[in-house]
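Hello again, I could really use a second opinion on something today. My current little project is about how a certain protein chain folds up. You're getting the sequence in one-letter code plus the fold written as C-alpha cells. Here's the protein in full, and shout if anything looks odd to you:
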Amino acid sequence: MPATRRSRSRAAVPAALALLLPPAAASAQAHPVAPTRTAEPVAPPIAATRPADDPVLARIREEGLQRSQVLETATILSDVFGPRLAGSPAYRAAAEWTRARLASYGLADARLEAWGTRSGRAWTVERHSVELEAPYYARLVAFPYAWSPSTQGTVRGTPIHLPALRTEEDVAKVAEQVRGRIVLVGPVPADPERFRPLARRWTDAQLDSLARLTDPGSPKDYWDDAGGYAENVRRRQAVLIALGRAGALAMLTPSRNAVSTMVSGYQAYDSDVSAAVPALSVARDDYARVLNLVQKAQAAGQAAPVLAVEVRARAEAPRTRADSQGVNAVAELPGSDPSLASEVVMVGGHFDTWTAGTGATDNAAGAAVAMEALRILKAVGARPRRTIRIALWDGEEHEDYHGSLGWVRAHLGDPETLRLKPEHAKVSAYFNFDNGTGRIRGLWMQGNAAARDVFRPLLAPFADLGATTLTLANTGSTDHMPFVGVGVPAFTFLQDPIDYETRTHHTNADVAANLLEEDLKQAATVTAAMLLQTANLPTRVPRGPLPAARSGIPVTK
C-alpha cells in the first residue's frame, strides 16, 4: 500500500495497460502519494502477555500471539492452492477448503454463498514461455495476462516495437505492420524509486500527521472511487481485441514493477476476450534487453533478435447457471444477547488473486487474518453480544467489486438507487483487510469522526502492539466501498506498507516467502479484539448521512 492512498487496480491503472489509455484517463486514476517515508526495517518486539483489565482480551492476546495459525492458513491459501483467479478451479478449491476450515473452528453456518452470476470464462494457464533465440539464447522472465488467449503453438519472429496503442484507430493505422508479428508495446518505464528502501514502516511522525488530518480527501464516496474505471476497462479491452483481429501473434509489455514482474490481466471475469491478442508482461530488465536488440543489433553487425513465445491456457465458458455463479466464503460467530444477536459486525477481504504469484500478500494475508481472528474468538470462548460475520469476497480484482457488491445488493441495498433492505439497519460496522502483510497501525476512518471517538478506547488495550492511529482519511479501491456506497460504517485497517507496492503487489513475488509471521499474528490479534469489542458496544457504530441516490448511473466500474 502506498503512503496514504491505495494504488490498486482501480486507483491506478497498471503502466502496461495505461499505454492503451488516453493519458488523461490513465493519470486521473492515480491517488496522490504522501511524502517519502523513512525506513524502519524491524517491528518492535511483541509481548506475548500483558496485564489487561478484561480477562477475555488477555486470553485473545495469549491465543493470538502464542498459538497462532495465521501463517499456516495464509501459506496454504497461497502456495498450496496457487493463484485463485476469480472463476477458476483453483479459486473454487481454495474456497471449499476455507469453508471447511471455518466450520472446523466451530463457527456457525460456514458456507459458500452465491453473490450472482458472471459471463467470463474459467481460465487456467497450463504453460507459458518467452525465449530469445537469436542473436544468442536467453529464457526471459514473463507471465501471461490472466485470461490471455493461447498462442497458436509456439510463435516465432523478430518483434516490432510500438510506443503505445491508445485507441482502436491507433491499431488500424498499424494493422499491416503487426500482422504476423510479435509486438512490443511501450517504452521501458523509468525507476525513480531505485535508491529508496524497498520495505518501509510508518514512522511515528507520519502516523501523527495522519491522525491530525481534518479533510478526509478522496475517494469521497462510492462514485468517486469508481471514477471512469468501467469505461477505461472497456476501452483497453477493445484495443487489445482489435490488435488480435489485426493478426498480431503476441503482445509483450514491460512490467510496471522494476523489482518483480507485475501482471494483472484482461479483467475478463464478466466479459469475453477470446478474440484478443495473446499477451504477456515481461520483467523490465528483460524487456529492455529485447528492445535494445530491436533498436541496435543490426546497426552493430548482430543478427536481428528472434523471440519464441508460447501461451497455453484453458478457458472454459459457463455452460449452466451453476457454472456461472460466483461465491463468497461466509461464516458466523452468533451473538449471545437475544436483544442484539440479530445485529452484525463484519470482517472481510477479497479472496481472489492475479496469477503471476500465489496471492500471498494480496490477499491470502487478509483472508487468513480474518479467519484467524474468528478462530481466536472461538478458541477463547468469547461470547459477543452481536453476531460477528466473516465474508471473503470473490472477484475484487476485476471489472467490479463482484462479490462484495453482489452481497451488499442482496442483503443491504443498491448504491445506485439507495433502495435499502431490512438488514441494512442491522449491520453495525464492516472492517476490511487488504493491504499486504504489514501489522495493523490503526484504521482509515472514511471521514467518520463520531466513530473515531468510539474506536479510540477499543484500541487502547493493545496500544503496545502499535495499533493506535485513527485517521479520518478516506481510502478506496477495495471491498469496503460497496458498504460505504449504502451508508454502512465501513473501515479498512491501516497497515505498515512493508514492500507491498514495491515488491509483491500483483507480481510473481507475491508468494508465501514474503509474508511476515509476527506482523500477521499482531494483525489477527488486534482484529479479534476490535471485532469483539465492537460487537459488545452498547449501541451500533455511529453512521454518517446516507449517500444520495445516483439513479440513471450504472453501478459498474
About this structure: The chain has two domains: 77-118+196-226+326-535, 122-195+227-316. Residues 360-379 form the longest helix (20 residues). DSSP finds 18 helices and 17 strands in the chain.
